[in-house]
Specification:
Blueprint (H helix, E strand, L loop, with lengths): L2 H16 L9 H11 L5 H13 L5 E6 L10 E6 H7 L4 H14 L3 E5 L5 H9 L4 E6 L2 H13 L5 E4 L2 H4 L12 E4 L5 H12 L6 E6 L5 H12 L3 E6 L3 E6 L6 E4 L4
Length: 264
């Protein structure tokens, strides 16, 4: 058993011990968020995305992709052959976390959204199903994977702005005077330093009242350390630990508070 797997098991045990349900939430705002988003049930839009996932898991194509490092979407480029079903099973958002993304967007109604880590487009589809009116910019390191994502977007009639390239290269090229996202989903790197770098860069460019979502906050010791630093940042008013996701509310006028909430 790898040290990373051992860490994840221990993180899960710790989460289960500390996680609370709605009865422990005294903030009316977070109580509403918990019941409207976390405790929500899947719907037809969720099932549409899952039908696309099932097709991807049977797709026979093999992609030559730029492996960007940790989690297949980091920074150090290397070319590898990857069957689409393997990518779909290992890297695309699972059904539960996808549903949470969908319901967050349905509840938050972001005007502009940014996603770091398009992958095959599953997470972006969940976001767009939740709130189709958002202007979504999604960034992917691999051109081959981004093309498959584009196929999936088109199949549902969506056309988000897709950018292909290394995050460190393309982020400074965005016209931030015209794009101030109020929802940011960071799922593109599973290392501490880049995660903090993206957070510090984007919090200076997001809308005054924004929502940050971090994927896999307990994926490793360094990701957990990054999450702890982020949630303690004085610009984060409210933070929520859902085991797989970390959610941060920026710009809300309320006392700083941290929640560890049951996600089922």
């Amino acid at each position: 058993m790898s040290s990373k797997l051992i860490f994840q098991i221990l993180a899960f045990i710790k989460y289960q011990k500390n996680a609370r349900n709605s009865y422990s939430i005294h903030s009316p705002y977070i109580f509403e968020f918990y019941n409207s988003v976390i405790k929500s049930k899947p719907d037809n839009n969720s099932r549409k995305v899952e039908s696309i996932r099932k097709k991807l898991e049977k797709d026979t194509r093999i992609l030559t992709i730029e492996d960007m490092g940790a989690g297949m979407r980091g920074n150090s480029k290397d070319h590898k052959l990857r069957p689409i079903p393997q990518i779909a099973k290992r890297s695309a958002r699972d059904f539960y976390t996808g549903k949470i993304l969908q319901k967050i967007c349905e509840w938050w109604k972001p005007k502009q959204s940014l996603e770091l880590g398009t992958n095959l487009g599953i997470s972006a589809l969940y976001q767009l199903m939740g709130y189709p009116s958002t202007q979504l910019v999604t960034i992917e390191g691999s051109e081959a994977i981004a093309k498959i994502a584009q196929e999936n977007f088109a199949s549902e009639g969506f056309a988000p702005i897709q950018i292909v390239g290394n995050f460190n290269t393309v982020l400074p090229q965005i016209k931030w005077s015209e794009f101030t996202p109020d929802l940011i989903f960071i799922d593109g790197n599973h290392r501490k330093a880049p995660t903090l770098e993206y957070f510090y860069y984007l919090i200076e460019r997001c809308a005054p009242v924004s929502l940050f979502i971090f994927d896999d906050i307990h994926w490793s010791a360094e990701m957990e350390s990054a999450w702890d630093i982020i949630r303690k940042d004085n610009r984060v008013n409210v933070s929520i630990d859902l085991l797989h996701f970390g959610i941060c509310f920026i710009g809300r006028e309320q006392a700083k508070e941290h929640f560890i909430l049951r996600n089922t």
